[in-house]
Amino acid sequence: MTFEFPHDFLYEFITLFAVLDPTAAIPVFLTVTAGLSRKRSLLVAAYAVGVAFLVLFFFIAVGQFLLEALKIPMASFQLAGSLVLLLFGLKLVLGQVSEEAAAVSPDAKPIERAIFPLAIPSIAGAGAMLTVVLLTDNRVRSLGEQVTTTGILVLCLAIIFCILAASTFIFRIIGRPGIEILSRVSGLVLASIGVNGIMIAIKMSFVTA
Q1: Rounded to whole angstroms, how far apart are CA atoms 206 and 209?
Q2: Which of 44, 6, 9 is nearest to 150 (CA)?
Q3: Which among 81, 58, 86 is positioned nearest to 204, based on CA atoms?
Q4: Which residue in 186, 195, 199 sits closest to 86, CA to CA?
Q5: Listed residue (38, 42, 22, 3) closest to 155, CA to CA
Q6: What DSSP string runs through the chain?
Q7: What is the pLDDT of residue 2?
Q8: What is the average pLDDT score of the chain?
Q9: Least crowded by CB within 10 Å, which of 37, 50, 135, 141?
Q10: Structure pTM?
Q11: If phi over 0 gives left and psi between -120 and 50 gives alpha, with beta otherwise, what is residue 95?
Q12: Alpha-carbon distance 115 to 199, whole Å?
């Protein structure tokens, strides 16, 4: 049993944008770029979006082949990805992600600040990796449809870059308490998506057993 997403531009855009979850990335971005100039902060955002794209494109290109070569059922991959998503959501709720981001060395280069925990797993998290594999399933998607999905992913990441670039302005409006609330609400949503994914993966396991 496999779950097939509808091949529709608006549906895929909303799905990808939701799993990329820019609201969860904002507090992490503000933390890892604290004390940096505007130019270097934008560089961190660009690196983060670029790294996220490379990771997700890897899963689009070879993710399904890799799973098949390792004989890992999609249900197992979804279960593992959902567990990671649940744990990351809980860490957001508890404020632990911001603590990890704050632990970045003041001397860290922009690329080092961008990779963890901003690009991975705040942007290119387990849910996003799983989603791009399902949206580009080789068994039901043509090459043209997979290229379209990749283009939609690029569009979503470009919007996320703009949101990160405007995060300082957002911070001025809602302040630190607003950012903390945003982070915890995003964490709760991600944790809920993770739990839902676990339940679906368990159902898939029973059906295919």
Answers
A1: 5
A2: 9
A3: 81
A4: 195
A5: 22
A6: --------HHHHHHHHHHHH-HHHHHHHHHHHTTT--HHHHHHHHHHHHHHHHHHHHHIIIIIHHHHHHTT--HHHHHHHHHHHHHHHHHHHHTTHHHHHHHTS-TT--HHHHHIIIIIIIIIS-HHHHHHHHHHT-TTT--HHHHHHHHHHHHHHHHHHHHHHHTHHHHHHHHHHHHHHHHHHHHHHHHHHHHHHHHHHHHHHHHHH-
A7: 47
A8: 88
A9: 37
A10: 0.86
A11: left
A12: 30
Which pair of tokens denotes residue 54? 């490379």
- Residue whose C-alpha is closest to residue 19's, from 87, 148, 121, 114: 121
Question: Residues in the chain with pLDDT < 70?
Answer: 1-7, 208-209
pLDDT of residue 152: 96
Which domains are assigned to the chain?
9-208 (1.20.1250)
